[in-house]
Amino acid sequence: MASQRVLSGVQPTGNLHLGNYLGAIRNWVEGQSQYENFLFIADLHAITAPHDPASLTANTYNLAAVYLACGLDLNHSTIFVQSHVSAHSELMWLLNCVTPLNWLQDMIQFKEKAVKQGENVNTGLLDYPVLMAADILLYQADKVPVGEDQKQHLELTRDIANRFNYLFCRENPVLKLPNPLIRAEGARVMSLTDGTRKMSKSDPSDMSRINLLDTPEQIQNKIKRCKTDSVRGLTFDNSQRPEARNLLTLYTVLSGKTKEEVAAECQDMGWGQFKPLLTETTINALKPIQEKYHAVMDDKGYLESVLRDGREKAQAIASSTLSQVKSAMGYSLPL
Ligand code: ATP
Ligand code: MG
User: So where does L-tryptophan get bound (predicted)?
Assistant: First the structure.
């Protein structure tokens, strides 16, 4: 039986941080041999907030190199850039015309980001979930790894696919309904400056996150200055101590130890003893990724060949779905 197909992507909107790695990319890497993976750099999604063209190009390159540096294996995973496959934009238009406006206005992320962006809300921000539906449906994906923040959008993707199939191809549905791929231990990493908020690329303070490409000195400085409390002895399970829980969780995941081992090791420690331990563990965990990243970035020819091959494989599948969609909608005059 053919493997199930998984589709996922990250926006090239800034520095990838430990949350992106531990919550997303590392899970793709660990599960990759069980599935046929299509993993893309979501550069069309990256312009729903005002953007700088030169940074978009640089970030796209960097993110492709990060994917490889984190251990994606080209035998199982196709890596490509979203804008290289024009079917994403084209299918989005077709799906726009079957998506009721009020479905989009109800999306929580739209409401939240619209408030953040204030005067600068473009139509793309509202329409983002339809582009995401196009991304997923083009590849007839079986599974989509989703964090809490994307569950509602995946539900919408299923609603759009259902509506399309019902309107245009009830007998022979063209679009496959995707299911969420929820991984039990997908770590949610919190901000270094506030243990109740998630670590995020768009947080204006770089001190709030550890970026995958931070130098050992930066990592040391960020952990030294991160928010803690004045209680002695470190525990996971005190809801009054979100920073303790977050930093212990980071230490657990990055050291490869179990929660029980870490709880026993750290129960009598103070922050002055724990912070250097976490610093060293983080630096060591990121070192191989950083070395591979620099090797890939030094060989642009290789990186470009990966993206070219990825585009070819992605395009073959995407254009087949797109032509079925168009023909179901009545775009079927012979040339
Ligand atoms: P932005 O602030 O611009 O939304 P982000 O840091 O949330 O950026 P995304 O590009 O939105 O990053 O998300 C990429 C992937 O990383 C998604 O799968 C998302 O669920 C995951 N992710 C993002 N932040 C965290 C976090 N703090 N902990 C775990 N997973 C995370
Ligand atoms: Mg996000």
Answer: 135
Q: Which tokens belong to 289?
A: 């990724």
For the CA of 200, the nearest atom of ligand 1: 6
| Residue 301 buriedness (CB in 10 A; 0-12 / 13-18 / 19+) | exposed
Gap from CA of 231 to ligand 1 centroid (Å): 30
Q: How far apart are CA 277 and CA 229, in angstroms?
A: 17
Which amino acids are annotated catalytic?
113, 198, 201
- What are the respective helix, strand and coil percentages of the chain, to the nearest 5? 60, 10, 35
> Ligand 1 pocket test: which of 10, 13, 20 has the largest number of ligand atoms within 8 Å of its C-beta?
20
Q: Which DSSP state fits 178?
A: P
Cβ–ligand 1 contact at 249 (below 6 Å): no
Cα–Cα distance measured from residue 191 to residue 227, given in angstroms and rounded to the nearest whole number? 9
**What is the number of the ligand 1 atom nearest to the C-alpha of 149?**
20
pLDDT in tens, 181-230: 876 655 789 999 999 999 998 889 999 999 999 999 999 999 999 999 98
Q: Tokens standing for 64?
A: 């492709």
Taking the CA of 16 as reference, the closest ligand is: 1
Q: Which of 168, 35, 159 has the alpha carbon at shortest distance from 103? A: 159
Q: Tell me how far apart the alpha carbons of residues 130 and 316 are, in angstroms, rounded to a whole number.
A: 21
Is residue 173 pLDDT above 90, yes or no? Answer: yes
- Is any ligand 1 atom within 6 A of the Cβ of residue 195? no
Confidence label for 151 from pLDDT (cuts 50, 70 and 90): confident
